[in-house]
């Protein structure tokens, strides 16, 4: 039975969850931009206090590996590594898009919907008109690989021809909604369904039981595309 601290910081949501044997025990999260650095360790400490546990009682640390926000991923992975080094615990990584799809599948089951009738497309905002996305079936098989792309009406044309309804979720889904709803009436949107450490828990537990750990020293987030720094708008500097 694994006691795992799950850390999700790949989007603007800062989320930390404690899971035991893959089941959520407690969670702390906030949807506040640029809050990760000041909240993440506080959330972790609160969870340990609520569970009447010490950090040394943990069996592993799991972190959402991306794709997602460059800064958010750096903060999450750096914090996870810090816990692993100080506690001498193994590091587990969980794909952000896979985690989102897993959460939506679990939600559909709770609502009495059969996930086999759907395909799941988690989307994470990649700034401007671009999103990170992938497509999964009800068993979390990757039906279409992870991409960074600008969505147009033809982006999912092949999937709209299938019998299954394509479900879009995540903070990148909202800006694509108008375009994709024009492309197909079968597009179903749950744009309010955001990334959370809660959805990582069963996936992290599976990796824990299989002994699929990362090399803590060399592990890096899955950025998918290079970080591009914005030009500061400071008086006296050229545009």
Question: Gist?
Answer:
29% of the residues lie in helices and 27% in strands. It has 239 residues and is an alpha/beta fold.
**Helical content band:** 25-40%
CATH superfamily of the largest domain: ATPase, nucleotide binding domain
CATH class bucket of the largest domain: Alpha Beta
The appropriate CATH architecture of the largest domain is 2-Layer Sandwich
What is the strand arrangement across the widest sheet? 3-2-1-4-5
Task: Round the mean pLDDT to the nearest integer and report it.
Answer: 92
Taking the sheet with the most strands, its summary is: 5 strands, mixed
Number of strands: 10
Radius of gyration: 18 Å
Structural class: alpha/beta
What is the CATH topology assignment of the largest domain?
Nucleotidyltransferase, domain 5
Structure notes:
The chain has 239 residues and is an alpha/beta fold. It has two domains: 3-95 and 196-210, 2-Layer Sandwich (Nucleotidyltransferase, domain 5); 97-190, ATPase, nucleotide binding domain (Nucleotidyltransferase, domain 5, 2-Layer Sandwich). Helix content is 29%, strand content 27%. It is built from six helices and ten strands, in the order βββαβαβαβββαβαβα. It has helices at 36-50, 70-87, 96-110, 157-160, 177-183, 201-210; strands spanning 3-8, 13-20, 23-31, 60-64, 91-94, 118-125, 130-136, 142-150, 165-169, 188-190. The strands form two sheets. Strands 3-2-1-4-5 form a five-stranded mixed β-sheet, sandwiched between helices. A hairpin with a 4-residue loop joins strand 1 (3-8) and strand 2 (13-20). The longest helix is centred in the first third of the chain and has 18 residues, at 70-87. The protein is globular and about 50 Å long. The termini are far apart.
């Amino acid at each position: 039975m694994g006691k795992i601290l799950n850390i999700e910081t790949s989007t603007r949501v800062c989320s930390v969850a404690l899971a035991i044997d893959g089941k959520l025990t407690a969670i702390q999260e906030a949807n506040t931009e640029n809050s990760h650095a000041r909240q993440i360790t506080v959330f972790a400490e609160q969870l340990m206090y609520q569970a009447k546990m010490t950090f040394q009682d943990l069996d592993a640390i799991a972190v959402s590996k991306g794709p997602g926000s460059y800064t958010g991923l750096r903060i999450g992975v750096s914090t996870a590594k810090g816990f692993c080094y100080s506690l001498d615990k193994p590091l587990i990584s969980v794909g952000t898009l896979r985690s989102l799809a897993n959460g939506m599948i679990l939600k559909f089951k709770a609502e009495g919907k059969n996930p086999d009738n759907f395909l799941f497309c988690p989307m994470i905002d990649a700034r401007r008109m671009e999103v990170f996305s992938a497509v999964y079936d009800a068993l979390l098989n990757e039906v279409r690989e992870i991409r960074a792309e600008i969505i147009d009406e033809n982006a999912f044309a092949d999937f709209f021809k299938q019998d299954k309804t394509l479900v879009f979720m995540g903070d990148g889904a909202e800006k694509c909604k108008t375009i994709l709803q024009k492309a197909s009436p079968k597009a179903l949107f749950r744009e309010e369904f955001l990334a959370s450490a809660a959805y990582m828990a069963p996936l992290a537990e599976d990796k824990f039981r299989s002994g699929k750990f990362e090399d803590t020293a060399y592990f890096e987030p899955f950025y998918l595309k290079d970080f591009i720094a914005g030009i500061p708008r400071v008086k006296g500097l050229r545009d």
